Amino acid sequence: MWSTIAGAFAPDGAVPADTHITRLLDRAAAYVLLDGDEGQTVHRLVHRTFADALRARSGADRRVAVVRALTELVEHSAKLSDSPANSYLARHLSGHAAAAGSAGWRELAASTRALDETALPDLGRDVLAARLTLPAGGSGERLPQQCWAA
Question: pLDDT for 123-135, tens place per residue?
């Protein structure tokens, strides 16, 4: 997961090797904690302000690139196995789409597999938090047509 997201931030889109990720985690050990999420080991920044600062420094184009890379990861994983998507992706991909704005939602909507794998409670939470609406009304940003068209 880390290498996929890091590749989205790389100017040339090159995915770093696992050794690079390991070196990064070693050097940033004071800022990263090991945690668990639905039986899966995850690394998290120790404080939300670090994540907020990194998010603020990344442009919208990078946030969209992250959504694109993660949806491609879901698609690639589905070709290798019929197992459900990684639990992080199922629970947080829609949050990445929300952080990227309407372009992020379009990226998510373009991947039927990623939408199918997204946990509905989390998708609903992120849609409501982003104040997205269906075309029929309400205020806020409209969902891309792919999200509601049959």
Answer: 989 988 888 765 5
Q: How far apart are CA 107 and CA 68, in angstroms?
A: 6
Q: Would you say residue 106 has pLDDT above 80? A: yes
φ, ψ dihedrals at 59, nearest 5° = -75, 170
| Interatomic CA distance for residues 77 and 82, integer angstroms | 8
Q: How much is the mean pLDDT over the chain?
A: 83
Q: Cβ distance 133 to 102 under 8 Å?
A: no
Q: Do residues 143 and 105 touch, judged by C-beta distance below 8 A?
A: yes
Burial class (CB in 10 A: 0-12, 13-18, 19+), 64: buried
User: CA 94, CA 74: separation in Å to the nearest integer?
Assistant: 13
From CA 108, how far away is CA 64, in angstroms rounded? 10
Residues 6 or more apart whose Cβ sits within 8 Å of residue 39 = 87
Q: Which residues contact 95 (CB under 8 A, 6 or more apart)?
A: 122, 126
User: Residue 117 and residue 72: Cα distance in Å, rounded?
Assistant: 12
Predicted model pTM: 0.78
